[in-house]
Design goal:
This protein has eight helices and three strands. The chain starts with a strand and ends in a 5-residue tail after the last helix. The chain has helices at 10-21, 63-73, 84-113, 121-142, 151-165, 172-175, 177-186, 190-195, and strands at residues 2-4, 51-53, 59-60. By secondary structure, it is mainly alpha-helical.
Length: 200
Amino acid sequence: MKLFYSPSSPYVRMAHAVAILKGLDDKLEKPPAREAGVNLDKLNPLNKVPTLLTDEGETLIESKLICQYFDEIGEGPKLYGQDPQTRRRVLQQEALGHGVLDAAVLCRMEERMREPEMRSAQWMERQTKKLELGFAAIETIVGRLGPSLGVPHITYVCMLFFIDQHKIYPGWREAFPKLAAWYDRTRTQPALAASEPKLT
């Protein structure tokens, strides 16, 4: 299998962490997506990472779908659950983390791509509100999660690492101390520690 890769992408990291957890990492090639000659858009018309090319020649183009595929073919208990109610709960928790991460990415793009005088205060306020409400909801959720690593753990740690790395929401640790303590504890689990980008 080939997981087209960007080491800075939190979405790629989510898929990579699930692959590690499911015992698939040694079966996974990770070609750099932006390397000359890769032409990712021939596989994925959106030209985004992660993109997975399976051993059967199927192309999967979205991180949540790739995580579900790894859960199907990998070792160990099913991360998304066996019964429909459990699956819906995991998918809902995963979607919340992705939504907060999407808002954080939009904040970073606004700051990187626009000069200060061109930035929309209203736009930034809308995204920051998503961060605030999302963090509050996630802080409640992690209080109910068990210690065994699952999809919500991976999603939230990758999201929080990205936010910390790029200083998108300064003060979140003080505003949500229980979430901060959970994050510092959980990020050391092997699949998350092994997939963590090396900051330079």
